[in-house]
Amino acid sequence: MQNNHPLTNWQAKARQMCAGAEVELTPKRLEVYTALLQAGHPLSAYELIDEVKHHFERQLTPISIYRMLEFLEQKHLVRKLKSAGKYIAITPNGPSANQQVLQFLICRECGEVKELGIDQRILVELKTCIDLSGFRLSNLELELDCVCTNCSTHTDADTGK
Fold this sequence. Notes:
This protein is of the alpha+beta class. Helix content is 48%, strand content 16%.
């Protein structure tokens, strides 16, 4: 019988991605990736150490967690949100799997993060404008400062708008 739970599917896809690259997704690396998936929101390296300890009863050192996060970033399973200094799991079926460039909408109120795929054509146009301005684009990722619908609704209710 096949398990169709999304977490199990993401773990299997992560294993396949690593196997295809001829690298091993060790049990510790899988636990770190799984902890990020389970959290559902960005975590700092130290918060992730606590999550792994809580869920998997494994104590990781800061240097170990940073090495594992670096590995997972290289395999496009995790991204570091530079503006927040935290990490988020990338779902294998997310926007980046559909040939879109992955962007992040980050709620400034509650910290919720949503992956958003932006069509390559839009970014090519943006890159062209940047090139014409005398600059060179070094990273296509965008972290957009937003307010989610839930927080916006609460803010509107608080202000009476």
